[in-house]
Amino acid sequence: MLSSRTRCALVALLLSPVLASAQSHTIPSEIKGRWTYQEWSNTFVLSDIKVAPDRTFAAKLEWWTANKRCSIRGEPVSGKLTDKGISWDMVTKPPCNEPYSLELNRLEKGWGGKVTGKESSLVGELKAE
């Protein structure tokens, strides 16, 4: 027969991967940052982030571009949780209509990642707090 102390230790040991997994998939309700590509840089905001049990999320995206007419302002976006953070796709507004894939990974402090053009060779950097 195991002592109550030993049983508690075993339960904690068995639950620790589950708890760690749940913690690593906690996403804040808002992520603000900057994108940078060569000499261009501007801001982005994912707001009202809501995570679903199937490891997807829905949010509103604000993405400012060099051409202000192409900027995304408060549009709905959806994506998925990854082992390291989040990823999603987007298309800038007309007249640009440029499709991108984005990924943000948790860092020791803040977030870091990349934006990749789906129809171009563009690969830019993302940074967020």
Blueprint (SSEs and pairs):
Blueprint: H1 4-24, E1 31-37, E2 40-51, E3 56-63, E4 72-81, E5 85-91, E6 99-106, E7 111-117, E8 123-128
Antiparallel strand pairs: 1-2, 1-8, 2-3, 3-4, 4-5, 5-6, 6-7, 7-8
Please mark out the parts with pLDDT under 50 across 5 or more consecutive residues, or reply none. 6-24
Share in β-strands: over 45%
Largest sheet: 8 strands, antiparallel, barrel
Examine the coordinates and then state which fold CATH places here, giving the name of the CATH topology: Lipocalin
CATH class: Mainly Beta
Q: How many individual β-strands?
A: 8
Mean of the pLDDT scores? 85
Arrangement of strands in the largest sheet: 1-2-3-4-5-6-7-8
Q: Distance between the terminal alpha carbons, to the nearest Å? A: 50 Å
What is the total domain count?
A: 1
Shape: globular
Give Rg in angstroms. 19 Å
3D structure, described in words:
- With 129 residues, this protein is α+β, with helices and mostly antiparallel strands.
- The protein has a single domain, classed as Beta Barrel (Lipocalin).
- The protein is 16% helix and 50% strand.
- It has one helix and eight strands, in the order αββββββββ.
- The chain has one helix at residues 4-24; strands at 31-37, 40-51, 56-63, 72-81, 85-91, 99-106, 111-117, 123-128.
